[in-house]
């Protein structure tokens, strides 16, 4: 094995280890519930991913649902598209391409809905009307005096200037519960963006 290949393998191990460790044992760890025995596989596959262009070697189906928010049609963008592949309540959580290195499944053959998974929580089924959650796929309103500047957002991250599910949630770590990027004690996370 050449030096470049070794360096790439070591880098991949260093980068992926914290993500794997943060998921193991959380609701995002589907390794036992889907029978893969692998923590990362329901979302990511280094080879033959189902929707590799959608995200980092993305192995899961994307939602085909039509979404609304606050009475208007909503076109999801960024990581929110990936999140709703499991949280729309319609797309099967088991709808991924590579089950393990030797077995592949047809996306059409997968029929396990999120509410049927052992330990599933129906509260995580957000549905297609997203009016009951924070605005997603929305441009961060920098011109509003009630909003803090982008430079003050700390661990919260925008994607192409937009608020997405992953602005507040880190799917790879549940350190603060509910996969939050920071503690929301005393509304600290909310107040990172919103002024009182």
What does this 3D model show about the protein?
This protein has four helices and six strands, in the order αββαββββαα. The protein is α+β, with helices and mostly antiparallel strands. It has one domain. The strands form three sheets. It has a two-stranded antiparallel ribbon with strand order 1-2. Strands 3-4 form a two-stranded antiparallel sheet. Strands 5-6 form a two-stranded antiparallel sheet. β3 and β4 (103-104) form a beta hairpin. The longest helix is centred in the N-terminal third of the chain and has 21 residues, at 3-23.
User: What is the mean predicted local confidence, pLDDT?
Assistant: 81
Strand order of the largest sheet: 1-2
**How many DSSP H or I helices?**
4
What distance lies between the first and last C-alpha atoms, to the nearest angstrom?
Answer: 57 Å
The computed structural class is: alpha+beta
Unreliable parts: 3-18, 104-115
Beta-strand percent range: 5-15%
Shape: globular
| Rg estimate, integer Å | 18 Å
């Amino acid at each position: 094995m050449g030096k470049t290949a070794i360096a790439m393998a070591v880098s991949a191990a260093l980068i992926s280890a914290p993500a794997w460790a943060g998921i193991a044992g959380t609701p995002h760890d589907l390794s036992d519930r889907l029978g893969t025995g692998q923590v990362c596989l329901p979302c990511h596959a280094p080879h033959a991913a189902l929707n590799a262009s959608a995200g980092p070697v993305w192995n899961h189906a994307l939602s085909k649902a039509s979404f609304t928010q606050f009475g208007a049609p909503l076109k999801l963008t960024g990581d929110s598209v990936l999140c709703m592949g499991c949280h729309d309540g319609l797309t099967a959580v088991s709808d991924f391409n590579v089950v393990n290195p030797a077995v592949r499944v047809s996306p059409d053959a997968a029929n396990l809905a999120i509410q049927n998974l052992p330990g599933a929580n129906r509260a995580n089924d957000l549905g297609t009307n997203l009016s009951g959650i924070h605005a997603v796929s929305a441009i961060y309103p920098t011109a509003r005096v009630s909003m803090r500047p982008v430079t003050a957002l700390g661990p919260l991250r925008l994607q192409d200037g937009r608020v997405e599910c992953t602005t507040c949630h880190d799917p790879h770590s549940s350190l603060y519960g509910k996969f939050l990027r920071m503690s929301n004690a005393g509304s600290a996370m909310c107040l990172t963006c919103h002024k009182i």
